[in-house]
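A further point concerns the way the authors explain their paired sequence and structure data. Nothing conveys this as quickly as seeing an actual entry. An entry of this sort, consisting of the sequence and the corresponding backbone structure tokens, reads as follows:
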Amino acid sequence: MELEIGFGTTPQRVTIPDSNLAGVLLPNRVEVTLKGEAAVRDALAHPIGSPRLGELVKPGEKIVLITSDITRPFPSHRALPAALEELEGAGVSLGDVTLVFALGSHRKHTPDEMKKLVGEAVFAKVRCVDSDRDDFVRMGRTALGTPVDITRVVAQADKRVGLGNIEFHYFAGYSGGAKAIMPGVSTREAIQVNHSRMTLPEAVAGRLGGNPVREDIEEALSFCPLHFILNAVLDEHKEIIFAAAGHPVEAHRAGCAFLDRLYKVEIPEKADIVLVSQGGAPKDLNLYQTQKALDNAKHAVKDGGIIILVGACGEGLGEAVFQEWMTTATSPRSLVERIRRDFQLGGHKAAAIALVLERAEIYLVSQMEEALVERLFMRPFGSVQSALDGAMEKMGNNARILVMPYGGSTLPALKQ
């Protein structure tokens, strides 16, 4: 079979013997009845596990809406108007409402960026602020020792509402839900303690129960409750195709279930070779972004197998801390040990790659210099076909090959 594989702005073609092809993983077909603001309004009108937002709030209360920052795809400007209407309908003055951007450990916004995120109308009538890692209230400590340090304006609010999108998260299971609180409006110390558990085998994409990172995040709600959430699932065009509102765990689980129906794809067995691409530009601009496809592909490869990671990476590694960790490491194991003693954002993706390398080889098809790729503990190739030929030579003529053309979106799940 001949297939087209995304690679920067110029896709590559590869021929795979039919007898070796185990399958091509594509998103499942799911019927969508409501999109955009219509989906948001329907979710607000039919909350899950909770009264309507307007029934939870009272006039005179201080209300905080926590929404995503500029690094996330959640379209706040599409979701906020309906939520604010619900509050105003309950007699809440918009002067008592503060919109907080959940920065986690990211940089602050400019006023123009805030305005773009929420829309001019909302920005003009609602106070908008960034979460502040230096001005916080310590509200407790989880059973695993994570400090629940929350931005003061959030900690002191009478009611807290979390907004965001749900997608697979490679060690918290899924984004959304309680992540608005932890790490959204938490301190760097809290984030480091929580995220340092990313190396545990149960901390994987698509897992909620038994995931130590997700369970720690949700335990933080016992100290700083979210009273209501509004979460959405987005398609590849960043359009809202599903929304869930209500209880911070129950509504979140409904969103996760929809995401699973769309992007979790069952496979009967793991493959000897997994050929995975982010889908081309702009998703494979650098290795930092392309890593997401690699992390999904790891669920489909046999121990001792080969992952052919396809990403143009025209801008190289793409992030300073990530680059420093990757280029100075003496071995994949050294990266895993380093993240356990010194969690750093950027370094966490280096450690994620190292965890894959401990189970499988990575053949990287990119535009990066061969010497640099080898320094990253990967084998360099200039074309998908040459990488596949090399992988088959090593794994044998009977090797089973699984292809993931949109690896950043599809999550392989071994059929039970």
